[in-house]
Amino acid sequence: MNNKPIYIIEHLEPELFEWCLIEYEHISQIIGKDYLWFTNIKNPEDKKRLEKFGSVFTKSARKMDFKGACVLDPEASKTLEPKEVKSFNYLIFGGILGDYPPKKRTQEELTPFIDNCEVRNIGKEQMSTDNAVFCVKQIELGKKFEELKFVEGVSIEINEFESVDLPYRYNLIKGKPLISKKIQLYLKKKKGF
After folding, report:
1. Could you tell me if 22 and 119 are in contact, meaning their C-beta atoms sit under 8 angstroms apart?
2. Could you read off the pLDDT of 71-88 as tens digits, one per residue?
3. What is the rounded CA–CA span in Å between residue 137 and residue 6?
């Protein structure tokens, strides 16, 4: 058994949107590319773009055979505990761009299809994929979920007149929400919402 689990992002969007790519790069920075797998990546161009961030598989996690897997699903009844993280070889996340209100896509598109896995939540609130991974990494490092600090929703200033509200839960690091600089730049450059 591996001491350090592999973090798996099952890509569930119809394409590799720029926002996904930015989050996936951020996840690679959080946990290291040696512990990161991207699954369900069908497009060879997308595969190439992601290979610098982790291992990339065209096959869906739904069709892989895992021993010691845990799916992170906000709808799960049990919360992930530090002592159990080391018993998992694989931690599986849905690579999903958020909807508000949430559509429970992990529960519908991922959880029922992974055989012989445990299912845990990291709270019921919707997080960006990179924030969900960061949260689980903190639990892997020994913090209890209840000890982690969060903010519900962030507002990103685009210019002096406009801002974009992101209605998701973000980890608080030294009082600031965990949001990649690249996402902030992306939002500032994006035209129209």
Report:
1. no
2. 999 999 999 999 999 899
3. 11
Can you name the residues that pair with 58 across neighbouring β-strands?
Answer: none
Residue 116 · residue 29 · CB < 8 Å: no
**Cα(133)–Cα(122) distance, rounded to whole angstroms?**
10
Helix axes 18-31, 181-189, angle to 10 degrees: 170
CB atoms within 10 A of CB 160: 6
pTM here? 0.94
Residue 1's pLDDT is: 43
Instruction: For 28-58, write each residue's pLDDT tens digit.
Output: 999 999 999 999 999 999 999 999 999 999 9
Q: What is the separation, in whole angstroms, between the first and last Cα of the chain?
A: 46
| Architecture of the CATH domain 6-143 | 3-Layer(aba) Sandwich (3.40)
The residue extents of the domains of the chain are 6-143
Q: What count of other Cβ atoms lies within 10 Å of the Cβ of residue 1?
A: 9
Residue matched to tokens 């299912």: 119
Residue type, 157: E
* DSSP H or E run through 10: strand 6-11
Helix (H) or strand (E) holding 105: helix 105-109
Gyration radius from the chain CA atoms:
16
Residues 57 and 55: their CA atoms lie apart, in Å, by 7
139 φ/ψ angles, rounded to the nearest 5 degrees: -65, -40
